[in-house]
Amino acid sequence: MQSTQLDEESRALLRQILERQAYRQLMSANIRGHGLRFLPDLEDKQRFVKELDFSLRILREIERIYDGIDGQDLHLAVRERMESIPYPESRVELAVCLALTERAERVAARSYVDCVFKDFAAVAKTLLGVDRSERGLEERLLGEFCAEEGQLPQAQQYWTRWLTISLRSLGRPGTRGDSRAVALRLRSKYCGTVIRAYLDGLEPLRESCGLQLPAMDDIGIDLPEDLRSRFATQVRASH
Measured between alpha carbons, how far is 86 from 74 in angstroms, rounded to an integer? Predict the structure, then answer.
């Protein structure tokens, strides 16, 4: 579907979707740029630069699409949200950050591969097609850190911080915009379904590291009642 075939409601919702995607890509690029300081090995630095370049190329494509549907200033639209994102303070926190945010990126992308707006569907397919095998390295670093005596409380802080940020990047379930995005075929899954898939995918990693789920009320995440009840049950079981 071309931009000229989108009605105004679809354009407005697609602009919001693109802003959220731009937020995820800009966060990824900024964090990787910052994370170079924690990598003494040249090969690791080159790998990070390659991933940073990929995020910026995706961001450029999103900017092109955004401009084509009457978006004004994409970077201005996401600037306030970007200002609230912290930077990792250590190599281990960088590993936690990347392990969680990149999972969120892939789970979100799966809900857009059938987007009625083909240009954005192509972006989602590109995101899913890229090699993310390095995530195994980041998860291994986290596991090794958690296994060290006395380090679990620090790892839990990192986990809670970046899980919160990742969940917020996936949108708010149960809103009218959430329902309309699916009805208009801009997205194939509701936000609640995407969040559920994200949390389910994290469970093996969380359990293997001995980490606990934070209470959603404590971290300010708004979930629909069915998902909130399920999550509360998992929190009680993990404590």
Answer: 21
Q: What is the pLDDT of residues 97-120, one digit of tens each?
A: 999 999 999 999 999 999 999 999
C-beta of residue 115 within 8 angstroms of C-beta of residue 124: yes
Query: Which among 128, 112, 104, 119 is positioned nearest to 190, based on CA atoms?
Result: 112
Q: Does residue 3 register a pLDDT over 90?
A: no
Q: What is the mean pLDDT of the chain?
A: 88
d(CA 128, CA 113): 9
Sign of the CA dihedral 169, 170, 172, 176?
positive
Domain residue spans in the chain?
A: 3-238
Report the topology of domain 3-238.
Ferritin (1.20.1260)
Q: How far apart are CA 152 and CA 136, in angstroms?
A: 19
212 CB-near residues (< 8 Å, 6+ apart): 156, 206, 235, 238, 239
Q: Helix, strand or coil for residue 7?
A: coil
Q: Could you tell me the two tokens for 124?
A: 């989602």
Q: Is the distance from CB of 186 to CB of 13 less than 8 angstroms?
A: yes
CB 177: neighbour CB atoms within 10 A? 16
Whether the CB-CB separation of 227 and 192 falls below 8 Å is answered with yes
Contact 67, 15 (CB under 8 A): no
Amino acid (1-letter code) at residue 132 = R
| Angle 155-160-166 from CA coordinates, rounded to 5° | 120
Q: What is the pLDDT of residues 51-81, one digit of tens each?
A: 999 999 999 999 999 999 988 899 899 988 8
Q: What span, in angstroms and rounded, lies between the C-alpha atoms of 124 and 186? A: 12
What's this model's pTM, rounded to 2 decimal places?
Answer: 0.89
